[in-house]
Amino acid sequence: MSAQHDHGSNAGHSHAEKNLSDRQLIFAVAINVLLTLAQVVGGIVSGSLALIADALHNFSDAAALGIAWFARKIGRRPADKLMTFGYAQGEVVAALINLTTLLIIGFYLFVEAINRFADPQPVEGWTVIWVAGVALVIDLATAFITHRGAKDSINMKAAFLHNVSDAMASVGVIVAGALILLYELYVADLVITVIIAGYVIWQGVTLLPRTVRLLMGAVPDELEFDRIVAFLENQRGIESVHHVHVWNLGEHHRALETHVVLTSTSLDAI
Q1: CB-based contacts of 226, cutoff 8 Å, min separation 6
Q2: Are residues 33 and 152 in the same domain?
Q3: Theoretical Cys-Cys bridge with 86: which of 37, 79, 111, 170, CB 3.0 to 4.6 Å?
Q4: Taking the model in full, what pTM does it have?
Q5: One domain for residues 74 and 206
Q6: Do 42 and 133 belong to one domain?
Q7: What is residue 253's three-state secondary structure?
Q8: pLDDT > 70 in the chain, percent
Q9: Cβ–Cβ contacts within 10 Å for residue 122, how many?
């Protein structure tokens, strides 16, 4: 009896808790946008590039949270005739947008800092300290908000770590302002800017490969392709498997699709 081919598919399931509500997420976006505006104005008034660097970093966080909120709403939509696997990949697309923006901002800040090294500008230290101090308080408040969702979502955990890094950057800007007031070390402003830019670029470069792998349908990191194939082939009634595909659907779902060749005894039992 000739063998027949059977085509099957299976998808994993996720039950990510929504400890962070949409309202809290929108509030976090709003206060980060307001903080960004305050830091930009403060940076222009004081002449501090480090303050503007911190502002752009905060803006990237606000954008990241906003895109994450939108992607999460899209990702909740059920599968339909257009998107038969659902809309979970929307969050991965959002991550790619956020990381690309992060890298652009980081390189821009780095170039600006290098250019200013050749022609340092005077910086108003007290303005830098006051604005950065307000930023530090808001960064810590936002980190507290996003921490509630970080326990169950890697996206929210990334947002939480982003806010913590912003708080650290604000501390650095305050230190730069103090050095300017005490010793007139205007170069400290540029050094802090380079450090912030380097950290932003490092974040983007570190997270980008995983995001690209998710979009390109790579085998999930925690799974071993050969073990999956061996497990399927060892099942009773299966002669062989081929055209095996394993990939991620969004952040939490896994999908498996394969062609299965059944044994003749299995076919007789049908």
Answers
A1: none
A2: yes
A3: 79
A4: 0.70
A5: yes
A6: yes
A7: strand
A8: 83
A9: 11
